[in-house]
Amino acid sequence: MNVRRGVLSVVSLCLLAGFSLCVSAPADAQYPANMLSGLHWRDVGPMRGGRSYGVAGNASQPDTFYMGSVGGGVFKTENAGRTWFPISDEGIPIGSIGAIAVAPSNANVVYVGTGEPDIRSQHSYGNGMYKSTDAGKTWMHIGLDATLHIGKIAVDPVNPDRVYVAALSMARIRTVAYIALSTAARVGRRSS
Q: How far is CA 141 from CA 23, 41, 186, in A?
């Protein structure tokens, strides 16, 4: 909490300083070179993000977030977005991510649904659901292969193995998709 207040204070001071310079200096005035010499460009997010539909976190870890992009996979930050690193390159063989959810009762349990949910002239499809029980270090494919576009994942607040999935599909719609996912997650095998 103190880090966020500190960042907010620094941003506010920078904005105030920038505003006072704009108001007091004529439009054609040059800033002294030493005023900006300490500033450096830096990357503030994933390099290959693109469109993003999946963002998730857990209240028990306020600085940890997961972001899934349509064409770049899943990224994770553990310092409130200061740095990001890819966590799906090994274990999720498709880059199109439609939804991410972190279990409210266990921050190590992360679900990823593949395939962007937005219906548009060109879109990327997915190949089902993935689960990590170690905060994204390893992934297990847990089913719903024919579900090409997963738009939302809801994890039961008490039972991290009970998952509800909203998806668009070319296949027959499963009304009990969460049972298939829950069973596959418990026994460690793929559901059909």
A: 57, 39, 12
